[in-house]
Amino acid sequence: MINDLRWPPPPDGFPRRLGKPRNSAPNTGRPAPPALPTEIVDTPHGVQLERLSTGVGEPVTVFAHGLGHGIAETRPLGSAVTGKRVFFQFRGHGESSSPRGAWDYGDLARDLRAIADMAGATRALGVSLGAGALCRLLAETPDRFEKVVLFLPAVLDRRRPEAARRRLVNLLEAINSGDLPTVANAVVEEIPPSARNGASGWAYVRQRLNTLMNTGLSSGLLTLPDQVPVPDVNLLRDVSAQVLVIGCIGDDLHPASVAEELASVLPDATLHIYNRPSVLWHERADLRERVSGFLNG
C-alpha cells in the first residue's frame, strides 16, 4: 500500500493521503459523477467481475474500459445515454478476480459477453482495450449487438509498433513492481502538456495513481501488449450492428490508421477522427454528444 506516500504533490502545497479509489472520475475542472456502490457478480465462466448499473429501462448498454482504467473512466461516456447503463471492470482490474495464468483477448471477450448477457444489453461501447475485446466478441458473434461504439481502438490483427508495445509493457511492469515514480511519469503522458502543471492535471495524476497502486493490475495482463484482438480483421465484415468508430490524430497508442481500417471493414460504420489526442480533455462535450447522439438515435 502507498497510503503514506505523497506523490505527486498537490497543487495547493498541502499533503494528502492516498485513499480507497472511487468509481467517480478524476477532477478535471468539471463536477465528477458521485461515487456509487458496485457489486461483485459471478459469471458462467467462473470469473467474478465488479459491476455498476445506472439508469433504468431499455435499451441496455454495456461499457468496456481500457487497460489500467475502469468504471470511473467509462462513466462520463455514458452520462447522456438513455436506458440502463452497465459498467464493469475486466478481470485483473479493480475488485474483479484474477484467474491464474496469462490472458488473451478471448478471455476479455468472455468477460464482456457475460456482463452483456446478464444485463440483456443490445448496445456496447468499448474503449481501447475494451474496443479490442468488443471486436473479438463481434468476430465470434457478428450479430450480438444492434449498436456499437469503438472509441480509440488500438490494435486489430497486427501487433502494435514496438514503441507502443514497450510503453505498455513498462507501465504494467512498473505497476506490478510498485515503481511509483515510473507509473506517475507514464500517467503524466496521458495529460495534455498545457494541463500538466495545473490543478486538474495534478488531480488526474493523483486519482490514477490511487487506482493503479492501491488496487493494482494483475500479472495476467502482462502478455496483452504482445497480442492482437482478432486473428483476421476480415472476420468483422459480417458484423450486423451499426457502428461508430472514433479515433484521433497524434496518439501513438491509438493510431488513427487503426480506426480508419476498422471503419473500412465494418459493413455499417461511421468514422470520426479528432484532430488531436487527449480527446477526453479537449473534446469531452463533443464526444459525449457524439456518443449519445449515435446510441440514442
Short key terms for the protein model shown above:
single chain, 297 residues, alpha/beta, Rossmann fold, eight-stranded mixed β-sheet, 8 strands, 33% helix, 15% strand, disordered N terminus
Plain-language structure description:
With 297 residues, the protein is α/β, with parallel strands linked by helices. The protein has a domain at 39-158 and 228-296: Rossmann fold, CATH 3.40.50. It is 33% helix and 15% strand. The protein is built from nine helices and eight strands. The protein has helices at residues 71-74, 105-119, 129-140, 162-177, 180-188, 199-214, 256-265, 279-282, 284-296, and strands spanning 39-42, 48-54, 60-64, 84-88, 123-127, 147-151, 242-248, 269-274. The chain has an eight-stranded mixed beta sheet, sandwiched between helices. Strand 7, helix 7 and strand 8 (269-274) form a beta-alpha-beta unit. Helix 2 (105-119) packs across helix 3 (129-140), helix 4 (162-177) packs across helix 5 and helix 5 (180-188) crosses helix 6. The chain is globular, with a radius of gyration of 18 Å. The termini are far apart.
